[in-house]
Specification:
With about 210 residues, the protein is an alpha+beta fold. The protein folds into two domains: about 120 residues, 2-Layer Sandwich (Hypothetical Cytosolic Protein, Chain: A), CATH 3.30.1230; about 70 residues, 2-Layer Sandwich (60s Ribosomal Protein L30, Chain: A), CATH 3.30.1330.30. Helices cover about 45% and strands about 15% of the residues. It has a four-stranded mixed β-sheet with strand order 6-9-7-8, sandwiched between helices. A three-stranded antiparallel β-sheet has the order 4-3-5. A hairpin with a 5-residue loop joins strand 3 and strand 4. Helix 3 runs antiparallel to helix 7. The N and C termini lie close together (about 10 Å). Bound molecules: zinc ion. Zinc ion binds next to loops.
Length: about 210
Amino acid sequence: MAVEPIRSCIACRTSRPKGMLVRVYAGPDGRLGIDLSGRVGRGVYVCPRRACLEQAVKRNELARCLKVALAPMTAEALETLILEAVSRKIAALLGLARRARKVASGAEAVDSAVKRHAARLILSATDASAGTAEKLRIIAVQAGIPWLQHMGKEELGAALGTTPRACIAVTDPSFAGAVISTLNKIPVERDARETAWSDRRVKSGAESRKVWG
Ligand SMILES: [Zn+2]
């Protein structure tokens, strides 16, 4: 099995497998982009932690490391770019999973996928009711699979080419792993990081990385 290459964060200088870092690149027009597949333009890596984003934009460090002229930017603007890239990639993954028939959507289909032991993760819409979200979380805990929240009902439905959906279940381990490692690129607070990190690593699992890198 290939070993994932190690890269270091431009802010804290910690070395990590590159899948745990966010790659920021400068396009030919000098605009920043977030590259979640590791192939575009000249890039640098940063940890998905707010403290590292702050450090990366301070004194225009990002521009210096990328060797491009960039207007000063805030950590919030960088975080927004990351969130947008994450949402685009999740939508693309869900679209692929749907075409491969590896996703169940809507409460009944999700429930049935869990009962068949086919569900590998449950994703709730961020605007699902608190009761629905809690019910899904408990179902996921009992099934021993990750429960995550991302995107609104409209966006989840659109990604699947259907009407708004409050929840979906991914039924393939590779797609589930790719969804989890993509969501792990969302910046977290510094004080929660070590716990967040170790449970993220457990959830991601090696099997997804073999396929999706
Ligand atoms: Zn860092």
